[in-house]
Amino acid sequence: MTFKYSLRFRVAAICSLVGLVVGLMAVANAYVWAERMEQDLVSATLGRTLDGILASDAPTSSEDLPSDIRFFPPAREWPQALHGLAPGLHEVQTEDQSLQTLVRDHGGQRYLIVWDETANERREDRLFVLSLLLLGGAVVVASALGYYSARAALFPVEHLAGRLRELGPGEPGTAMAPSYAHTEIGEIAEAFDHYRERLHEFIEREREFTADASHELRTPLATIQGAAELLRAPNVTAERQAGAAKRIERAATQMAELLSALLLLAREQPGSPDHEGAVVRVDHVVVDLVDGYRPVARRKGLRIELHVDEPVEVEGEAVLLSIVINNLLDNALAHTSAGSITVNVETHSVRIADTGEGIAERDIPYIFERRYRGSGRDNGPGAGIGLSIARRVCDRYGWTLCLESAPGLGSVATLTFGPPVSNAACSR
Q1: I need a surface site. Which of 66, 248, 251, 331 has the fewest CB within 10 A?
Q2: Does residue 234 sit within a domain?
Q3: Shared-domain flag, residues 211 and 315
Q4: Same domain, 60 and 126
Q5: Residues 6 or more apart from 230 whose CB is under 8 A from it?
Q6: Across 282-399, where does the E strand assignment appear?
Q7: Number of folded domains that form the chain
Q8: Do 307 and 402 fall into the same domain?
Q9: Do 422 and 286 reside in the same domain of the chain?
């Protein structure tokens, strides 16, 4: 739908139309009531006059009547226009006169009394023309008032438009709705605030997707690169070539799954959960990931101990659960130089404990923030977004990720499929 005219013009047009309709109704009502009152007054006046004449001794006399009233007895010759009228009040139009005529039968004879209302009709015509002129003036005044009052009424709209023009692209800004509370403009401002919030979230998700993709795809890309170098190396056995090809295939599959998961995270949160109807075996995911990290742990001289109490199923996507567990294992390996890493799969949670360097107490509250790498300049490897990605996955599914740590003694990360069960620093 397109609007060809401004709101101010439409307000003025509506005021003009309302003024015209109301004025026409008032003029028509006044005209109808004036005609009715005139008919009643003429009928009563002529009737009383005729009664007085007929009750006198000389009913044929009309010398005492006003100049505009004439009495016609039966014996007198009547004007041609008055012949054939039935008893009652009649309005008779001649070429130059307008006559109100009362006809009555009395004593077997028919009498007429006539009032010449020509002068009165001319006054009514002039009054009618004046009423139309006044009506036109009222319409013009209503249009002007509507046009200029619309300017004051539209000031909040112009003010809101000015504030919108000052906004920069991608800026969250402050909410506009409170400035226009309890008004129709407030509803527009509230709707725009909601739209701007969604747009800002979309931009943030796009930025996070770019960073997450570069972070999560490093490992499979490194695997592919290493396997490709192995395939190009001279004197490589067929068995090692098959192993390298298998690693490339596994890494490519992992990349495809990671991209699907990151695209899912970048999508706007839907009305129903992403995991509705999907079930993942937590113990299977953890076992596969731990087996993949064992060679890395052996090269660092670390032990990985895995304990599975019982099979555990949760609603969710396996690839997203893998992202969480993978980041926790990667952090544990990256910050542990000696000792062991213990993984426990319990009924409602997964616990990953390490004997690494631990985390300073002042850093614990910020550990899940994006790109936070600790209070020092060199706080280990990584881009500082792994735990942020894990937190976002947990927020999406209603899981809780908690972290307990003591400097020099190690850390314990607990993924709980529900609300937090400890007082440690948690993702929610």
Answers
A1: 66
A2: no
A3: no
A4: yes
A5: 236, 240, 241, 244
A6: 303-308, 313-315, 340-345, 349-354
A7: 3
A8: yes
A9: yes
Residue 306 is assigned to a structural domain of this protein: yes
Tokens 């490709």 found at: 228
Domain of residue 409 covers 277-426
Write down the H helix ranges in 167-217: 184-216
pLDDT one digit per residue (tens) for the chain, 428 residues: 455 666 677 777 787 888 888 888 888 888 888 888 878 888 888 888 888 887 776 555 555 677 778 888 876 677 878 888 888 888 888 878 888 888 888 878 888 888 888 888 788 888 888 888 888 888 888 888 877 777 777 777 777 777 777 776 655 667 777 777 777 777 778 887 888 777 777 777 787 778 777 777 887 888 888 888 888 888 878 888 888 888 888 888 878 877 877 777 777 655 444 445 678 899 999 998 888 888 888 888 899 999 998 888 898 888 888 888 988 998 888 888 889 999 999 988 999 999 988 887 787 777 877 666 555 444 444 445 677 778 888 888 889 998 888 888 889 999 998 765 554 556 55
